[in-house]
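retry 2 of 3: previous attempt timed out while embedding coenzyme A. Reduced batch size to 1 and resubmitted. Inputs unchanged:
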Amino acid sequence: MNLRRITHRDTDWHERFFALVETVFRTSGSNFRPWNERGGWHPGYEVFTIELDGDVLATVGRERMRFVIDGKEHDGYQLGAVATHPDRRGQGLSRRLLSRVLDDISGRPVILFGNVRVVDFYPRFGFTRIAQSSFMAPVAVEPARAAPTLDLETPEDRAWLAALCARARSPDTAFSAHDYYPTLLWHLTHKPRPVFRLDEVDAAVVASVEGERLVLHDLIAPRPFDLSRILPRLTPSRVSALEFGFAPENWWPSATASPADEPDSPFFVRNLPPLPARAFRFPDLAQT
Ligand SMILES: CC(C)(COP(=O)(O)OP(=O)(O)OC[C@H]1O[C@@H](n2cnc3c(N)ncnc32)[C@H](O)[C@@H]1OP(=O)(O)O)[C@@H](O)C(=O)NCCC(=O)NCCS
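retry 2 succeeded.
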């Protein structure tokens, strides 16, 4: 069995990686292919695998991240696609791969989002589970003059969004990240949602309406602006509440934080600098 590192350039191996994640994760695994076709696999994403005779048996995906923790930038990583073929489990393949990846990362911060079946797995590798918050706020917004939305099928709109992400600040400073366009693209490919283009404030907002709730999944902007002024442009119907997919400390400081109910995606961290005492939410669309 060989250890292999698959980069964006190793296109011969991409399909074999996709096949394994599809076997293990079913539907969500099949989202890698359209994401890759849209240019999502970039130099900062690498997959470590164990292969035998050309078949991929186990994988760990590693995304380079630019974390913002208590206002300071830290280079680190997010892991995902941690998977072993069902016929090869319990043989130490994941231990071998994860140990290799974590050795390579050395003392830098690393995060990952797990699932209910692996809550006891990651602590074996030095990860600690932490709790996030949900942020909500009451509002009264009537729709007006809908903002244009991006068409991510087109290379032009994807390039526009990527360039904006590169210039944008993190949505908050407690525990967040910035410049995570490839992960954002993965989410928007997997589950398309309107991405509003707001040239007047040099921003993009990913938003959808659920009943009377306007959910702001992400806000990508290099500079602060008055969020309340653009809300009418993001909704086709009256809304009475805002929900945030990030911590809106700089955008809506009066939002109420409550413990996030996320048993399906427990949040694990390793080698993180101390987190501030205030509530945080790692941006939903930066999670892999
Ligand atoms: C979780 C998974 C990757 C483990 O792969 P594996 O190759 O069977 O794991 P290993 O054999 O290397 O086991 C490593 C260690 O973890 C333990 N372990 C394995 N699965 C575990 C689990 N689900 N919970 C707790 N411990 C687990 C093993 O007993 C072993 O312990 P040891 O080294 O102290 O003896 C595999 O079960 C899988 O692909 N699951 C489905 C996909 C998934 O949910 N991935 C996580 C996404 S976040």
